[in-house]
Inverse folding.
């Protein structure tokens, strides 16, 4: 099955800072999602991005499927950005494989 | 709010017992996937239901079983509970089509936190 590696595992930022989270995956994929899990456990979709670049406010994501990686950019971070960020490439036709996540803490 | 609901929110059981968790999918979605998330880990795929049939399964034993109903809501049943079953159980709904069963954008419910003593 697909192996997913996310880096860095932990990240502490001062409010207002920018960051880049990386996701490497071991096989070609047709689907990929980025999620944010808040401290209460709710997983929120950020991007559905099998390839290319998308932007949504302060967040943007780029997937280079041919090189098997995806990046999530967070600009002007806020304390509400704290939580765990997961990358999940799709495997086959029915399931997503989650990485171990990047734990982000944004300090006021 | 994703429109996906789960019940109950928390549950405490003892080893050997059986448990049923419930999930209501988002309106217009016909596919439900279940995931188990242990503390400090990413969610792991248990299985997926598409139009009332199991569509695919992860590396979980047969004591993990499920159902999907005509309204596309779903249940996850776990028999003979073990201590390692303690986890957050998440369901996700999506819109699948024939030949491509629901790997499109998945919307997650808030989860059921199960503790096995």
């Amino acid at each position: 099955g697909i192996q997913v590696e996310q880096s860095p595992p932990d990240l502490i930022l001062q409010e207002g800072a920018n960051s880049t989270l990386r996701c490497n995956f071991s096989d070609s994929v047709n689907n990929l999602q980025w999620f944010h899990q808040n401290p209460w456990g709710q997983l929120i979709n950020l991007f559905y991005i099998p390839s290319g670049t998308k932007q949504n406010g302060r967040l943007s994501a780029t997937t280079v499927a041919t090189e098997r990686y995806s990046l999530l950019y967070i600009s002007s971070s806020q304390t509400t950005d704290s939580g765990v960020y997961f990358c999940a490439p799709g495997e086959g036709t029915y399931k997503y494989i989650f990485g171990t996540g990047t734990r982000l803490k944004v300090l006021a | 709010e994703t429109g996906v609901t789960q019940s109950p929110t928390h549950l405490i059981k003892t080893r050997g017992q059986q448990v049923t968790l419930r999930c209501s999918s988002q309106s217009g979605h016909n596919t439900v996937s279940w995931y188990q998330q242990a503390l400090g880990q990413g969610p792991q795929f248990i299985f997926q239901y598409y139009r009332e049939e199991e569509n695919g399964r992860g590396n979980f034993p047969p004591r993990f079983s499920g159902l999907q109903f005509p309204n596309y809501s779903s249940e996850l049943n776990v028999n003979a509970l073990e201590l390692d079953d303690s986890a957050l159980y998440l369901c996700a709904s999506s819109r699948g089509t024939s030949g491509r069963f629901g790997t499109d954008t998945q919307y997650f419910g808030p989860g059921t936190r199960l503790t096995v003593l």
Summary: Chain A touches chain B at residues 4, 30-31, 33, 35, 40-45, 48, 86, 88, 90, 92-101 (CB under 8 Å).
